[in-house]
Amino acid sequence: MMLWILIAAMTAAAALSILLPLSRRHGAGEGVPKVAADEAVYREQLDEVERDLDRCLIDPPAAEAARTEIARRLLAANERRKSGSGKPGSPIGVRVGKVIAIVALPVFTLGLYMVLGSPGMPDQPLAARLAEPPDGQSVEELVARVERHLAQNPQDGQGWAVIAPVLMRMGDPQGAARAYANAVRLLGPTPERVTDMGEAMTMANDGIISASARAAFEQAVELDPAAVKPRFFLALALGQEGRTEDAIAAWQSLLDGANPDALWVPAALDELAKLGGDMPEFADQLSGPTQEQVEAASNMAPEDQASMIAGMVQGLADRLSSEGGSPDEWIRLMRAYSVLGDSSKGRQAYESAVLAYGDQPADLAKINAAARELGLGES
């Protein structure tokens, strides 16, 4: 029922928006001629300018400009009246406009709704939707459910912990940071929780690691000295602060003993190379650019850099296609295509790796796990 009331109100408003101007125009035509009414309006505007000037609402130059413009319009209206061009409009046209507004507009609107709308569906306000079972609801509705719950129960730390990563994935790092902060306050700090809070703060700050985010990463390292993610961000922070030597030492410490196949390793190697630090021994095994290549690439135009990277990736793909390779090499090729944003070739590399190691369960499991992480295989 509420929907129909809204439709009626909207139709009435639309009709009035047409009828009122028509009625005013018609009334002016039956009494004082329209141009005479215009002259009266312009004279009233002149008086209004004088009143505004007396009350210091406008300055003298603005008042003079307004007087000039109004006087020009007043003279033009006077000329129209003298020439007889200010004749009242036709009452027939007004009546036709009223008929269209009163009859045709509502009929058209109702017909359009009957075709495109769902008149038989009952009203379903947000509160009712949120009270329904969560199965089948959109992510936005589920988030609204949790937010409503947290507004009523702000001390529910688990609720804040649940909604924080969802807000992060939805592109709201600022909201995620607040949710993580509440979860830390109510549930206590854990390495993962304070690290994710610092990451959300960093994303909300356009990638710049603030003092608050740095404090969160440092707390995470105190809780778990071997944790990779907070140490990664702390190394980034040192580079952002211009502490090159400390940043190099942080990256080298992070990479020392790291698994070459870890997803974060290429990014860490790239940061270390930018700072001019000594690369670890396993860097040469990743079929990536050497230090000399990185230095040469820094002087290239962006399109030349992209061409060089694509060439190295293609060289690895050609070698694996013709000679075969280890599971780690296939995974590196999959990761390279993923970084380049070419998911189609990444999926082809994954399928080729599956064919090559389909009869070796341990290696196949490793390839499948990497594919899931890169979004190339079935979850």
Structural description of this entry:
It is found in: Cell envelope. This protein has 379 residues and is mostly helical. The chain is 75% helix and 0% strand. It has 18 helices and no strands. Helix 7 packs antiparallel against helix 8 (173-187).
Give the helix proportion (percent range): over 70%
**Poorly predicted ranges:** 25-32, 85-89, 124-131, 287-291
Number of strands: 0
Give me the secondary-structure category: mainly alpha
Quote the beta fraction.
Answer: under 5%
Q: Please give the radius of gyration in angstroms.
A: 35 Å
Quote the distance from N terminus to C terminus.
Answer: 46 Å
List the total number of helices: 18
Order of helices and strands: HHHHHHHHHHHHHHHHHH
Outline = elongated
Oligomer: single chain
Question: Taking all residues together, what is the mean pLDDT?
Answer: 75
> Main β-sheet, in a few words?
none
Summarize this structure briefly.
Keywords: Cytochrome c-type biogenesis, Repeat, TPR repeat. The protein is mainly alpha-helical and 379 residues long.
Structural features:
379 residues; Serine Threonine Protein Phosphatase 5, Tetratricopeptide repeat; 75% helix
Chart the SSEs and their pairings.
Blueprint: H1 2-30, H2 34-54, H3 60-83, H4 91-116, H5 126-131, H6 139-152, H7 157-169, H8 173-187, H9 191-204, H10 211-223, H11 228-240, H12 244-255, H13 265-275, H14 291-298, H15 302-323, H16 327-340, H17 343-357, H18 361-374
Helix pairs in contact: 1-4, 2-3, 6-7, 7-8, 8-9, 9-10, 10-11, 11-12, 12-13, 15-16, 16-17, 16-18, 17-18
